[in-house]
Design a protein that fits this description.
The complex is a heterodimer of chains A (342) and B (598). Chain A is an alpha/beta fold and 342 residues long. Helices cover 31% and strands 21% of the residues of chain A. Chain A is built from 10 helices and 15 strands. In chain A, strand 12 and strand 13 form a beta hairpin. Chain A starts with 13 loop residues before the first helix and ends in a 9-residue tail after the last helix. In chain B, strand 13 and strand 14 form a beta hairpin. In chain B, helix 1 runs antiparallel to helix 8, helix 4 packs across helix 8 and helix 8 packs across helix 10. Classes of the chains: A alpha/beta (342), B alpha/beta (598).
Chain lengths: 342, 598
């Protein structure tokens, strides 16, 4: 069976390659400096075997989500967690330090000054990541992908390797409660508290400087940035990468440098989804605190209206909201793709 | 050395003929192993329990320690032995050499063996050994080997089919890709061709076969074998052609199919079976399947303890074939019209930009008073207002969101209008969307409509004049000129050679001459051309209510007199035009004669 394959995009110009190369070197230097400032709390990295699947995260006050997050990703088959604790005060650090498969570092510095934690994550990835499949996540992100219950992360990375893919592109599926945000309840399972999501309405565009594909939109964009679509959050990420020396994440895990691994975003290949549990009721006090710290967003003042609207406890529901059932539902909606994996 | 082995083989095959096994055929297993030794051991033990002698070949790249440990673990099984090790690199002679060495060992060491099955370490038997033996015993003297000439089958991936046999392949495809490709190109340029040895016709097929002792012994002891071996050493992927070709030379009867179920994806890589394939594999009734995911504990547990139903069943892989063919098609073509994180084709590739047909009506809503309701009634489609209106997205029912969280906010729509349309069509797959469009709307997609083969566009050019005529704005002349310019640009897109949509354009005057017929043809266009021959055409039971156009001709003449030349509506007579069968409506305001289409 022969089919017309979709050709890759044209190679970037020399000028752009040089610019991106320079940017990558700068980010690597930042990561090195940030890594030197990390203070080990529990270093169990001696237990990382060749081929182990690693998870990297930067956390702050995530006691609410932590249990479920760890359980989900252990079930997927993460072998070792590398975590930076950014001055938690709710017992997150103590809890993490006690776990046998977690190595923990403390970072006292500014979240914003470390490019929203990415310098710390890049430092860990650069030190422990090369040669491993690395999953870089926030505590409010749960990875799902085709056949995740049955085949796990080990099946997924074997498939990606067999098809020559260095990374898994993902869409953030933002979950929201079946109630106005202010009045919602929350138990230990965030998926029970957040049953709804937007089944579509994202838009896909090509990011000009890096040439990668971005998906934008989502319920936060729809409700909080209704009049300024240019500020709508980026909903695509590349959290799972077979890491190599010299690679860096640029902007959260939305894309990385060099640009080549991002180009898996082209032709209907295997992709996954990150269930985003940000919109739990604790978002209200959290964003009030964030607003004071002014540690989020590149331009915090432009996001003042965002905080104003969150403080009102917005209602994300609409008649088209879908109830989350599983990855097959996401596939049917076109939010992820099995890419010939059957 | 070869001579003595062959001598032994001849004696052994003669011995086998004299002592048939008690329950039919004794089946020998030749197994090529290079990884996942614990799984290989499980399967070897399964075969041994079933009374099958096994000869194992371990790839030479496996370190000596791992190899020795593996041998040691199987020491308790008397019927299991190991063959001389070769380096088995994909697509090279090594795999054939390993198979040949193992088969020689099998025939020499086990004179009772009547059939030999070639398997890999990631093959999993799906049915009890007794059932396979009974199946073979019922078909004595039959070789099960998939074998077809290159001219007959389009199996090959990578563009090399017949050339596998006529070019030299001294380089490894996986390791020395550049040399490989360069050398192929040079041979093509220079017209270098190898001669195919006399006595064989190249055949290809699945690497996994089950041959009778007679055929296998004939292949191994063929006096011409050195000549054939020399030839196949430089054929590309000889493991898919060596036995497939030579079996044709020696067989008594060939069943050209493999008893081993194996599926390949669009890149020619084997599909892997996981725990969730259990029901599918069980229903297939195949004897052996590959490739099995080494961590598929459920599959290994289920099938290695399989006791069977005792009923003779013919292997039936068609169900699995369908499932996998669908996956391959989806992978090569993707889902047209879907744009997401792993599907973003370049412009012009990957099929139409939208997922299904949709209809754009231009000028109808201006000309008919109850157009949207009427169209929805007449066609059963979803009818929206002006989706690209400057003030808001006019969803059907004018709700705040539509299908899959598409808001009615025009800024969101215009931020990425292409994706807005693609999302709308994708999110409503299976239901036809119709919407109104005109020169008052955002023109971002003017060209996209024209170029989209899924679009059906019906235009009454110049109909935008009707609202101006009925409710003239203060800057009438400027507004009319602006709208005319915009529509003229849009019509240029629709008439350009790049336009791929189904397009019909009437001037207002043409349309009014016979509205019923024009409407009928616009609606006919909504039925896809392929289905048009069979599908019932939507008939017009009633017609929509035409707006009151009394005095329009004079109004246009007035604009002309003022220096603005409205030409897109065609030549309307200065007096009220008489449409076919028009009669005054009872509901029409007195003094003006409306046009009523019957």
């Amino acid at each position: 069976m022969r089919a017309l394959a979709i050709p890759p995009p044209p190679p970037p110009t020399l000028r752009r390659r040089l610019r991106l190369g320079w940017k990558r070197l700068r980010l690597l230097a930042r990561a090195r400096r940030a890594g030197a400032a990390l203070e080990p709390v529990a270093d169990r990295t001696g237990g990382i075997r060749p081929g182990a699947r690693l998870a990297v995260a930067v956390l702050r006050d995530e006691a609410l989500r932590l249990g479920h997050w760890l359980e989900h990703h252990r079930r997927l088959g993460v072998d070792h967690f590398l975590i930076v604790d950014n001055a938690s005060t709710d017992g997150t650090a103590e809890r993490l330090a006690a776990e046998p498969d977690i190595s923990l570092w403390r970072a006292g510095g500014s979240y914003r000054a470390s490019r929203f934690g990415m310098d710390w994550a890049n430092a860990l990835l650069g030190r422990w990541g090369p040669g491993h499949w690395c999953l870089t996540l926030d505590a409010d992100e749960l990875l799902v992908f085709p056949f995740w219950e049955e085949r796990g992360l080990s099946g997924l990375v074997a498939r990606l390797e067999a098809t020559g893919r260095p990374a898994l592109p993902c869409l953030m599926v933002e979950l929201y409660p079946d109630a106005p945000l202010a009045g919602a309840a929350c138990g230990p399972d965030p998926l029970a508290a957040l049953p709804l999501f937007d089944p579509g309405g994202f838009w896909t565009e090509r990011q000009r400087t890096h040439g990668c594909v971005l998906v934008r939109g989502g319920p936060r964009g729809r409700v909080l940035f209704a009049d300024r679509p240019g500020l709508a959050p980026v909903m695509s990420k590349t959290p799972l990468v077979r890491w190599q020396r010299g690679w860096v994440y640029v902007n959260s895990t939305h894309f990385l440098l060099p640009a080549a691994p991002n180009l898996v975003w082209e032709d209907g290949g295997l992709s996954g989804a990150l269930l985003h549990t940000k919109l739990l009721p604790d978002l209200l006090p959290r964003s009030a605190a964030e607003r004071l710290r002014a540690e989020h967003f590149t331009d915090p003042r432009a996001h003042e209206p965002y905080y104003d609207r969150i403080a009102l406890g917005p209602d994300f529901r609409h008649p088209g909201s879908a109830r989350f059932e599983g990855w097959r539902q996401l596939e049917a909606l076109g939010l992820l793709e099995r890419g010939g994996w059957t | 050395m070869t001579g003595s082995v062959q001598g032994r083989l001849r004696r052994a095959s003669a011995a086998a003929g004299r002592t048939p096994a008690a329950d039919g055929t004794v089946l020998g297993i030749v197994m090529l192993v290079h990884t996942a030794f614990d799984r290989a051991e499980q399967v070897i033990r399964f075969w041994a329990r079933g009374g099958c002698p096994v000869v194992v070949h371990v790839d030479r790249v496996v370190p000596r320690r791992a190899h020795d440990a593996f041998v040691l673990r199987l020491r308790d099984l008397p019927g299991v032995s190991f063959s001389r090790r070769h380096r088995c690199e994909w697509g090279t002679w090594g795999i054939v050499a390993a198979t040949l060495a193992s088969c020689e060992a099998m025939l020499a060491r086990h004179p009772e063996v009547g059939h030999v099955l070639l398997a890999s370490g990631s093959c999993l038997p799906l049915r009890p050994v007794a059932e396979l033996r009974a199946y073979l015993a019922e078909r004595p003297g039959t070789d099960f080997i998939e074998s077809a000439t290159t001219a007959d089958v389009p199996w090959t991936v990578g563009g090399l089919s017949e050339e596998r046999f006529t070019l030299h392949f001294p380089f490894a495809w996986r390791r020395q890709r550049r040399l490989f490709d360069r050398w192929v190109a040079i041979q093509r340029r220079l017209g270098l061709r190898r001669a195919i040895p006399d006595g064989i016709v190249p055949h290809m097929g699945s690497q996994w076969w089950c041959l009778t002792r007679a055929t296998l012994a004939a292949i191994l002891t063929d006096p011409d074998r050195p000549r054939f071996d020399r030839y196949f050493r430089r054929v590309w992927i000889p493991d898919e052609s060596y036995f497939q070709t030579l079996a044709r030379r020696h067989t008594a009867r060939i069943e050209s199919r493999s008893l081993t179920l194996s599926k390949f994806d669009w890149q020619g890589k084997p599909h892997v079976f996981y725990d969730d394939h259990l029901p599918l594999l069980r229903r297939s009734d195949c004897f052996v399947a590959r490739k099995i995911w080494p961590h598929a504990e459920g599959l290994y547990q289920a099938f290695l303890s399989e006791t069977g139903h005792g009923l003779p069943r013919e292997p039936n892989p068609s169900k699995i074939d369908r499932v996998f063919a669908k996956a391959v098609e989806r992978r090569t073509r993707g889902r047209p019209g879907l744009w997401m994180q792993s599907r973003f084709p370049r412009e012009g590739w990957g099929g139409p930009p939208t997922a299904g047909p949709y209809s754009v009506f231009e000028g109808f809503a201006e000309l008919f008073e109850d157009w949207e309701e009427w169209l929805a009634r007449a066609t059963g489609a979803r009818v929206h207002g002006h989706l690209f209106a400057p003030g808001r997205v006019e969803w059907e029912g004018r709700g705040p969101t539509f299908a899959g969280a598409l808001p009615d906010n025009p800024r969101w729509r215009d931020h990425n209008a292409q994706m807005f349309l693609r999302n709308l069509v994708w999110n409503t797959r299976g239901e036809r969307q119709c919407f109104q469009f005109g020169p008052r709307d955002s023109q971002l997609l003017s060209w996209d409509f024209a170029k989209d083969p899924n679009a059906q566009i019906a235009v009454i050019s110049g109909a935008w004049i009707v609202p101006l005529f009925r409710d003239p704005p203060p800057d009438l002349r400027a507004e009319a000129a602006r709208l005319q310019r915009i529509e003229s640009d849009h019509l240029a897109a629709l008439r350009s050679p790049h336009a791929k949509a189904r397009i019909r354009i009437w001037t207002l005057a043409e349309f009014l001459e016979n509205p019923a017929e024009a409407l009928q043809s616009a609606l006919d266009d909504m039925v896809p051309a392929r289905a048009a021959a069979t599908a019932p055409r939507p008939r017009l039971a009633s017609l929509p209510r035409l707006a009151d156009l009394t005095g329009l001709g004079a109004f246009l003449q007035g604009l002309k007199n003022a220096g603005m030349h409205p030409y897109l509506m065609g030549d309307l007579p200065p007096d009220p035009p008489q449409a076919g069968g028009a009669a005054p409506s009872a509901a029409a305001p007195p003094g003006r004669r409306p046009y009523l289409v019957r």
